[in-house]
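FYI - complex with 4-O-methyl-alpha-D-glucopyranuronic acid, inputs then prediction.
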Amino acid sequence: MFRTLFHGLLALALLGLAGAARAEDGYDLWLRYRPIEAEWQARYRPVAASIVVAGDSPTMRIASAELKRGLDGLLGGAVAEDQPAGAGAILVGTPEESPMIDALGLPLESMGREGYLIRSIRIGGKPMTVIAANDDVGALYGAFHFLRLIQTRQPIEALDIRSTPKVQLRLLNHWDNLDRSVERGYAGQSIWDWWKLPDFKDPRYTDYARANASIGINGTVLNNVNAKADSLTAPWIGKAAALADIFRPYGIRVYLSARFSAPIEIGGLKTADPLDPQVRAWWKAKADEIYRAIPDFGGFLVKANSEGQPGPQDYKRTHADGANMLAEAVAPHGGVVMWRAFVYSHETPDDRAKQAYNEFKPFDGRFADNVIVQVKNGAIDFQPREPFHPLFGAMPKTPLMMEFQITKEYLGFATHLAYLGTLFEETLAADTRAKGEGSTVAKVIDGSLHGYRLTGMAGVANIGSDRNWSGSHFDQANWYAFGRMAWNPDMKARPIAEEWARMTFSNQQGFVSPAVDMMMGSREIVVDYMTPLGLHHLMASGHHYGPGPWVDDLERADWNPVYYHRADAAGIGFDRTKAGSDAVSQYAPPVARMFGDIDTVPERDLLWFHHVGWDRRMASGRTLWDELVARYGRGVRGVESMQRDWTRLAPFVDAERHREVATFLAIQRHEAKWWRDASIAYFQTISKRPLPAGEAPPEHPLSWYRALNFPFAPGH
Ligand code: GCV
């Protein structure tokens, strides 16, 4: 007893010292195991007095160490490990490794490798919490779940939790280049220090795996989809293998983006034609080589015939030909091919929003069993808001996986606060009506709507070498929300934001409610000041930093903002109705009718689907022009309101993180006003209407905004 107390006090004292010496820099993410309030410690302690972990695999050792680290930190030390089960023990394991768990006869049959049960039981009158799974990795997920309960101050005395992932492949996609730059990355350099791999294994790789395992992410594509063939050469396979070795015990598999023309570039062949026997043999041999180094290699991600990348169409073959050839190479090893549907061609005169559907729909059912087609959430490109992609619900015989962008290429980079949980939820909850009402995108993705044999969700990572991982503290929430929704696409953004805010900052109610409200409104604020009412792709060229609605001189028509907003003397917006590009017809009939009718389309998508007269009355009673101006202003005021909220939250947040968020919000305020002023200045030259009463004119003339130039913007 005395020893326990002493250790507890010592741990507290050390933590206090460490806390003073080590400022909160965000490195700990949502796994901050700081000591919790005394009354909660007193409540949890009797339940979590000791840890008994059955099994000695690397994964079980990680689960054990995590529980110890978490409970020691949260409960102020003195949690015993590997003691015989006694009062308040936590018992972790599989029936195979633990006779005690086996004897309990828990209903684990339908829970797969990754599912877990957490149950409060009594054995011989003593309380026990059992964290049980069929496989060690499930037990690890359960351990993280148990810690989350304490981190968010949930009761743990009478638990009966059952959790299995609804989606099989829950992957991050890193757009990381071999020179350590990151395409659309705003958090420093690539986390992969390629040059020093495979010899130097940065401890950060372990922390990365730990963070991902804590939210159920089970795979990572290491390199950019705009891939270099070099990543498939022996030295680079060795680097990937070193990472795979670190990630394996955390249940994370490594995947690689494959360059379609690699057989020519590094294989010495004259062609990369997917029907050429030599090309097929080359890929098979390459797959064999990779699997020798990485026995659990996940497979390939491919961007083909898109934005200049090579692909099967270069040889007059189809996407299915290309995907199936690679699928054949990895199939003997259990690998998959994720073939991206992000395709559009400037040689095709049709609306860019229609092209993925046009190219893929005819091949429904023609892909090999281990191919899954990866579709972006919307039909253009990760805009602040897009209606759901029309392919969802349209490919019943081909597994489709979701691709979200966690990094904020089009939402203000790392400095703008935009919680993407609401964006993810909006897409996943959208009803495709493919098989009647309730055919949500979530049901397409979890495979239940069409009975997909493979399911997946990918998020383009926002992780880099920055100390806080994501470039900003609040961007960590987007990584977190992605993982939680990949595990369960029916999860809602608000409870996820709440969990994250509690774990990352504070459990005090004075903090939680206002912080979560701020997060929940944040993405809509960005939509308001960048792309209100369904406008899209108005960002400046190349780097996509700041407004560029006037841009009309890029090499391809569909890279120009004017292609998307189509503002003219009569009105603004892209007519995608039957009278226009007819993109609406790619949706199931009830959805097509709803989007296609100007009276039923939601206002938030209005200008995505309709070219609308400047004087049309909106729900507010204002004309479209006045509404547009009002929305831009509302966006700027929204940021100001977040600034005020954040100032009020200062008492709950450590000075270092508070200061950084406040500074970023000031940048966001400045840039939101820039967006408003530049957009209004430009659109007013076309609408030729006065600003509504009370709306301040733009600070500068349009020419001033047009002259701005950012040659060194990041991520490009
Ligand atoms: C990796 C957009 C981005 C590109 C990205 C591409 C893609 O066009 O701007 O940087 O390339 O999407 O998703 O392939």
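Confidence is low (pLDDT under 50) at residues 1-22. The chain is about 40% helix and 10% strand.
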